Structure formats: C-alpha cells, structure tokens
C-alpha cells in the first residue's frame, strides 16, 4: 500500500512540475539524446504485432529508442557501441568494430547469445551467436539506418527466436514524397577515411527507390602495422504502396574487413594502478603486427595453411529481403518478411594464449637440451635477426614472452528466414482484441573449419617472432626447436558441416479492457532439428626431430554424424495501465528459452546441449512530457541450466582444453532511463543499471577430483553498477550542439570463482555538431577523452571457472581502446 501511495505521489509531483508555460519551447528540436528516440510519442514497431499503432509510453514492456541524430552525435564505432545508452545492457566493444559482447538483464551469455539482432524486423542471423560467428560480425551500421529500437526482455522471445533477454532492431531509412539524399565524409586520427551516402526518390505510380552504403579505410587505433579496417557495403531498395498494400525488396552486399583486437600484457603497479607492462603501449598497442601478418602454417598432411591476419574478420555477404503487407478489409492485416543470406566469413586473429617470463619459459623447456648433443643452454633468438639474443632479464623493458595462438576460422553460412503474420482487430462488447497468428521458418547451412598454431612472441607493440634454440658454450646454435617462431603447428583443428531447420508458431493478443487498461500475452511453440557431421581427429608426427611438427592435430578422414531435435514453448503476459497518454505503469512475466543450434556441434557430434530456460519478470513506470522523460523498471531474471565452455590453454602440451559446464543464475535489478529539458539550450540524459547477479548451485569437480563450490558468486563480467550521463548544450539558436558522455562501469570478475577482479572504471567522450545551414553540418568527436585503461575482460583462455591468472601481478587483459579524434562533414540534398 505504501508503494502505491509513493507511486501516486511521484506521479502527482511530476505532473505538477513538468508543464510550465515555456515547456513546449524548452524541448530542443535536435537534442541528441532526446530527439527522436527518447520521446514517448514515438511509434514502436519492435516486440509487438497487430493492426494498431502503439507509442513508447503505451507499451507494456521496456524499450529504448535511438534516433538518427542521436546516432550521428554518438557516432558509434561498432554495433555494440551503439547500444551503450541502453539500460540493462552491459556492452563491451574493445575488440574492435565487430566481435563485441552484450550481457543483458543478468543473462550470463557472451557475444550476442542473449539478444537477437534484427534488421527491419527480421533476424540478421537466425542464431546471433552461431559458433564463433556473432551477428555483429556480419552487420555494419551506416547512414542507410534511420533509428534503433531495443526491447529489453518483455515479449522479444515471443516474436523472435534466440531472444531471451531482448531484441535490437535496426530500422532502415524510408523514402519520402520527394527526392532527397545525403553524403557524409569522415576522417580520423587513426588514418580513418570514410564516406557514407544515401539517396532516395519516388519514381512514379507509387514506386520508390533508394540506394546507399559506405566505404572506409582505417589503420586502427591499435595499429597492427597494416590497414586494419577496409571495405564497405552497398544496398538498394525498391518499394511500392497501393494504399491498402505495401511491398519492398532490399538487396545488400557487404565486402568488409575489420581487425580483431585481443588482450594485451597488463601489470598491477605499486601504486595500485593497472597499466600495460613496460615497453607496451596500453592505449594504442596490439600484439598483432607485421611479423604475424602472413604465416605459412604446416598442416598434418604436409600442405600449407596460409594464415593472413591482415584479413582479420573478413565478411563477404549477400543479403536479399522482401516485405509484403496487405489490409484486405478493415481490421485485418496480413504480412510477410523473408530474408536470404549467403555469407563467407574468414576470422583470423593473434590470440595471446599465455604470458610468462622468458626465464621461466627456458627453465620449463630445459629437458630439450638432451636433444642437442654438446648444447649447454637454451636461448631465444629473433626470427628476423638470428644473431640477436633475447635478454631474459629486461628485453623490451619487461623480459616477457607470449605464447600466441595464430587462429584461423572459415565459416560459410547460407540462411533463409521467413516470418508470416495474420492479424485481426475486433470488438467484443466494450473491449477490443488485436490478435496475431504467426509462423516463422528458418533453414541454415553452415560449414566450419579451424586451424591454429602457437608462436613464441616477445612483448612489445606489434610483437616479434622468437625462436627457441640450443647453443654450446661459445653461443653457437646447435638446434632450433621452433620453426620460424612457430612453437607447435596444429594445436587446434576442426572440420564440420551442418544444417538446421526451425519452425515456430505463435499467437499474441492485445486486449484493450478499458481505455486505460490493456492486457496482452502470447504463446510460441518452436521446434528445431539439427543434423550434420564433425570430423574426427588424430595426431601426426611429420618430423620427430622438429618439435613444431611432431604432434599436429589433423583429420582422421572419419566423421561422426549427429541428428538432434529440440522443442519448447515460450509464454509471456503483460498488463499496462495508462494514467493518461503521457504516463503509465506496466508489469510482465515471461517464460523464455534459448534453443541449441548448429553452433553447439561445430566441434563435437556428441555434444549434449540443453534447452536453456529462464523466468523473467519486470514492473515499470513510464512518464513523458516536454520537460522530462522518465522510465524506471525493476526486473528479475532466473536462468536455468546455462551452458558455458571453460577454455584453458595448456602451456606444457601446447594444446587447448575445453570443458562444458552448466549452472543456474538469479539476478535482481533496476533500470533507469530519463531525459531532462529545463531550458531550450540545455538537456541532460542519463541511464543507470543496478543489479545483483549471482550463480546458483554452481559446483565443479576437476580432473584430479577436487571439489569447488561457487554458489552465490557474481556472474562473470557483469558489473553491479552501470551509469551513463549525457549533458548537452544547444547554442546559436540550436545551430551548435555540444555534448559529453560520462560512462561508468563497476567492478566485475573474470571467472566464476571471482578470483580475478576487473576494477571499476569511467570514461568520457565528447561530440559536437555545427549546422552551417539547412544542408551542411559539421561533426567532431573525441573518444575516450580521459584515455581510460578500463579493463573490459581478462584472459578467457586462462579459464572461466578458476582463472589461472588469480594472484598474478602480470597478466593478459583487454582494456578500452585509447583516445581518438574524428571529424565528419554531412551534406543533405
């Protein structure tokens, strides 16, 4: 009762203070965080179906909208970066323009495994976390996108597969009633040169056409010594409107390369601060470099695998999308959206598997001396300078070496997805129902291959290759135990093919009980069949005298088959009460799931993935006015049987070890999102997430029989506190806007044992827009102004159950990308 009285008091206070006489003038037309996208009057198209329109303030679930001008002022460098203003989402984009991580509402899954990535209402990729292929790797943000809608929890899992914690919808720009277009050119301090373009026009008799895309070349803030990011995409759209029917066809072609930034050597110094080790630039340095750009890796059959790290994540993708909608009679609507994709992805990276002192590496390999008669010592020598002896005490100011993994993955994927809906709105007495019947179909064909080798590297920016050699008393090299820096060829090998077919039926109903009260709910039944073959392995010895080729993992020529079927239901129910058009309360419960997919079988035909189920509850308050927008949501997430892989690199054998583990989790949290516009020249937006995410019943017995109990430990990587505050000023009658963002992430943990802590950090970004005239605008950006070295992740290859870096003074971690400057000029025509 007290909580109800408090809610009523808050609502009355907001009504009393939020409508001063000057209020309509106080809302700036171009406020970045407020226009459009923070306005409760925006029409919502994501997370619902039916014949009628629904505004943000009328929805019975949590949704964040990000408009085009907010996107331009934020100028996100990746899909993941675009979502950092979404409360309830922890986003991590330190890996570069692709391969980001999102954790949403306490769902303990990395990558895009907890949220679905949509473009124009249909998935970019049926499974957004498909076996080393996240959906953000095959999608690029450009000026053909008009806005973003993000559904947090709620009914996302009713309408979309693989969306237990939400759905992110990138909505393309639409052609208006007259010809228009824009061109935007961007430059950056990291040798960025980029051009975006979009042109659209009516072409007669109700037809409209548009074309757009981007091209860019960029060295990268963490410069690998070659052009890290290069390429672009182009799309063309044609549409027709007959009044009661609409049709569109969109074709998009991407040919793009982006770098994959991985962890770097970090150290805790006597002052308690964590910085890069001596000799390494934490802000701009990367382990990858010219010496690891092109490496010919020997395979088990003696052939050569050409590892080309300049390709990074290379995506060549053709995407075809058709949309059809018809209203045959009043109150009925039939629609279909279908998408076909053909994607070729090559994903290469230099992974820092392990870090240690050079002296300990030599001591660890002392047994090799017996293979070199007359040898008295082991040394490290540079591959490109064989006479240069590595100083184990202080080479590069640190005396450290990295055992790096040169990992190459090839992932061709073809998909067809189709979503058909039939909606009917009708009256029943004084109430109305808006019912939708839907059918979703998806078919996926995926090939998966991986080949990896380990290399010895020194620790400096653009690390150099090292050879391990045995020398006599005079320093003469008697035997080399590595092959041009390669420590072990073929420590990973995979070859698999699979196909998956998914069918889903769903029904939803929006029941308007009274003008103020609406109840909605739905049921989804989904079934999935996956079948394929996974290559079985063997270890071969190509040369007993060459340790690098003495134990190569390769294919045996035999394959193991799998054929699995899974089915499950999703349920959701919500209620929304509107005090008026501007304010309301909502509550919702959802029983969601995440189905297994082909990604569970790319390395093992005998894998036993479980259907991961979860209970999600939320209750929220919404209020919007010219002065203030406020959205507050409390949420609860119980995740059952979450699967994760504990990956560890074994330095002694040079092999990787994986262990599949399962756990339950429970999270209670609060999301806050708001914008304050007290005057025409100033506004303040903020988001906050406060949560308590913990493992439940997580126990573990290792190979030695030792028992571990991690019950009640914090979820890995998820902070308990996340804040983002964006003050902005509008000057010169709105022609000049300057805004800053302060982002804070609380402490997090690398492993489930909570033995390795990632400290809290804050970062500041600046952006500005100068509108020269109605057509010409200038933009400027400073990313990470304070040059924060905030750590976003540790070394997952050291184990995510009990991390082997626990207690270490020097370790591998991935910090934020360093300070960078960018500028853009945009011309509308």
Automatic annotation (TrEMBL):
* Every TonB-dependent receptor plug domain range: 56-167
Look up and give the membrane topology term: Multi-pass membrane protein
Q: Where is the signal peptide?
A: 1-23
Under what name is this protein listed?
TonB-dependent receptor
Q: What is its main location?
A: membrane
Transmembrane segment boundaries: none
Q: Which GO terms describe its molecular function?
A: siderophore uptake transmembrane transporter activity
The entry's keywords: Cell outer membrane, Ion transport, Iron, Iron transport, Membrane, Receptor, Signal, TonB box, Transmembrane, Transmembrane beta strand, Transport
């Amino acid at each position: 009762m007290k909580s109800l009285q408090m809610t009523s008091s808050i609502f009355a206070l907001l009504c009393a203070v939020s409508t001063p006489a000057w209020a309509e003038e106080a809302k700036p037309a171009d406020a970045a965080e407020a226009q459009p996208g923070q306005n409760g009057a925006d029409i919502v198209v994501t997370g619902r179906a039916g014949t009628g329109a629904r505004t943000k303030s009328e929805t019975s679930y949590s949704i964040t909208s990000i408009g085009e001008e907010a996107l331009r002022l934020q100028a996100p460098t990746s899909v993941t970066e675009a979502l950092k203003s979404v409360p309830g989402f922890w986003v991590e984009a330190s890996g570069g323009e692709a391969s980001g991580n999102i954790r949403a509402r306490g769902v303990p899954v990395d990558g895009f495994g907890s949220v679905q990535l949509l473009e124009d209402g249909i998935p970019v990729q049926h499974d957004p976390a498909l076996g080393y292929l996240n959906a953000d790797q095959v999608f690029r943000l450009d000026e053909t996108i008009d806005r973003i809608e993000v559904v947090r929890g709620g009914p996302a899992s009713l309408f979309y597969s693989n969306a237990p914690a939400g759905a992110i919808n990138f909505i393309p720009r639409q052609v208006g009633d007259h010809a228009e277009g824009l061109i935007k050119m961007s430059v950056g301090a990291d040798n960025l040169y980029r051009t975006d373009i979009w042109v659209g026009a009516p072409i007669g008799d109700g037809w409209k056409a548009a074309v757009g895309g981007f091209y860019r070349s960029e060295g990268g803030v963490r410069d690998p010594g070659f052009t890290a990011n290069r390429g672009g995409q182009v799309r063309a759209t044609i549409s027709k409107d007959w009044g009661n029917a609409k049709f569109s066809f969109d074709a998009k072609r991407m040919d793009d390369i982006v770098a994959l930034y991985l962890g770097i050597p970090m150290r805790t110094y006597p002052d308690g601060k964590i910085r890069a080790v001596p000799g390494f630039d934490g802000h701009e340095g990367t382990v990858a470099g010219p010496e690891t750009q092109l490496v010919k890796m020997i395979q088990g059959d003696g052939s050569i695998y050409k590892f080309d790290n300049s390709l990074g994540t290379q995506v060549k993708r053709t995407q075809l999308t058709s949309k059809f909608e018809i209203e045959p009679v009043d109150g009925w609507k039939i629609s279909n959206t279908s998408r076909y994709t053909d994607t070729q992805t090559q994903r290469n990276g230099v992974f820092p598997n392990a870090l240690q002192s050079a002296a300990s590496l030599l001591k660890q390999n002392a047994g090799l001396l017996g293979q070199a008669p007359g040898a008295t010592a082991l040394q490290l020598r540079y591959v490109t300078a064989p006479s240069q002896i590595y100083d184990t005490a202080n080479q590069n100011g640190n005396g450290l070496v990295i055992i790096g993994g040169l990992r190459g993955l090839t992932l061709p994927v073809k998909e067809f997805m189709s979503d058909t809906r039939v909606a009917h709105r009708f009256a029943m007495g004084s109430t109305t129902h808006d019912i939708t019947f839907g059918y979703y179909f998806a078919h996926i064909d995926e090939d998966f291959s991986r080949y990896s080798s380990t290399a010895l590297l020194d620790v400096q920016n653009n690390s150099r290759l090292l050879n391990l050699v045995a020398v006599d008393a005079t320093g003469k090299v008697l035997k080399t135990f590595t092959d041009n820096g390669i420590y072990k060829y073929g420590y990973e090998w995979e070859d698999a093919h699979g196909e998956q077919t998914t069918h889903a039926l769903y029904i939803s109903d929006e029941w308007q009980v009274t003008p103020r009260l609406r109840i909605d709910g739905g049921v989804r039944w989904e079934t999935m069949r996956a079948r394929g073959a996974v290559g079985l392995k063997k270890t071969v010895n190509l040369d007993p005298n060459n340790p690098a080729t003495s134990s190569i993992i390769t294919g045996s020529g035999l394959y193991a088959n799998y054929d699995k079927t899974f089915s499950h239901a999703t349920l959701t129910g919500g209620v929304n009460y509107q005090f008026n058009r501007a304010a309301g309360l909502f509550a919702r419960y959802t029983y969601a799931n995440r189905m297994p997919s082909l990604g569970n079988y790319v390395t093992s035909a005998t894998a036993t993935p479980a259907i991961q189920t979860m209970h999600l509850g939320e209750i929220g308050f919404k209020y919007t006015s010219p002065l203030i927008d406020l959205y507050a949501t409390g949420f609860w997430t119980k995740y059952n049987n979450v699967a994760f892989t504990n990956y560890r690199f074994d330095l002694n054998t040079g092999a990787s070890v994986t262990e599949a583990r399962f756990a339950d989790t429970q999270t209670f949290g609060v999301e806050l999102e708001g914008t304050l516009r007290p005057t025409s020249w100033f506004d303040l937006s903020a988001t906050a997430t406060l949560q308590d995410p913990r493992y439940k019943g997580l126990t573990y017995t290792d190979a030695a029989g030792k028992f571990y109990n991690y019950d009640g430990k914090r979820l890995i990587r998820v902070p308990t506190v996340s804040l983002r505050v964006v003050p902005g000023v509008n000057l010169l009658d709105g022609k000049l806007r300057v805004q800053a963002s302060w982002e804070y992430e609380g402490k997090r943990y690398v492993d489930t044992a909570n033995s390795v802590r990632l400290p809290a950090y804050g970062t500041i970004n600046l952006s500005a827009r100068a509108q020269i005239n109605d057509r010409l605008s200038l933009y400027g950006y400073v990313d990470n102004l304070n040059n924060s070295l905030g750590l976003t992740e540790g070394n997952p290859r050291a184990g995510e159950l009990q991390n082997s870096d626990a207690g270490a003074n020097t370790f591998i971690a991935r910090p934020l990308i360093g300070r960078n400057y960018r500028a853009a000029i945009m011309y509308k025509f």
